[in-house]
Amino acid sequence: MKIYDRNENKYLDAKVIARQDLAKNVKFLTVRAYFECYGVPIEFVVIQYSDGVYFITNDWISDQPTSFKEITNHRWVDRWGQDAEIVDGLPAISSHILKRVLTAAEAEREWNLKPPTVRSSCLHKRFRKEEARRSGRDWLVTVAGMERLYGPKPVTE
């Protein structure tokens, strides 16, 4: 399997060293890859749901999660694949990808930002290249990019 490390901007060879079905449509994989920045092979866990892939560090290998909520409540989960994504053999994106992409106007509404805040951020390249792109006369941005730049989406009452 291959893993793309966005920090190093390259593909790394990785090996699945353990695989377990946790529940229906949920797989728990332990993966080993060599990261040059650490100088040693790193083992980490990938939890694959039918609607996406989630990453966890080796802190949690022995304590297996039982639900999505349990996973997302822990600090070490990288739900959006900011540092790495599985590219060979496992889907790297959710089947609900359209829920992770917003127009600039939708993003401004959902984050209670004044227009043209998001468009301006796109034009000034505050978003990473995988977080925003031009589509016709509008901009498309990812929820992950919005959360990185503007914090969690405000809770509506």
Fold and architecture overview:
The chain is α+β, with helices and mostly antiparallel strands and 157 residues long. The chain folds into two domains: 2-86, no CATH class; 98-150. The strands form two sheets. A six-stranded antiparallel beta sheet has the order 5-4-3-2-1-6, with no helix packed on it. A three-stranded antiparallel beta sheet has the order 7-9-8. The chain is elongated, with a radius of gyration of 17 Å. Helix content is 17%, strand content 37%. The model is unreliable at 57-62 and 73-96 (pLDDT under 50).
Short structural description:
With 157 residues, this protein is α+β, with helices and mostly antiparallel strands. Helices cover 17% and strands 37% of the residues. Strand 1 (2-5) and strand 2 form a beta hairpin.
Keywords:
single chain, 157 residues, alpha+beta, three-stranded antiparallel β-sheet, 4 helices, 9 strands, 17% helix, elongated
Please specify the SSE layout and strand pairing.
Blueprint lengths: L1 E4 L4 E14 L2 E10 L4 E10 L2 E5 L11 H5 L11 E3 L14 E3 H7 L6 H7 L8 E4 L2 E5 H8 L7
Antiparallel strand pairs: 1-2, 1-6, 2-3, 3-4, 4-5, 7-9, 8-9
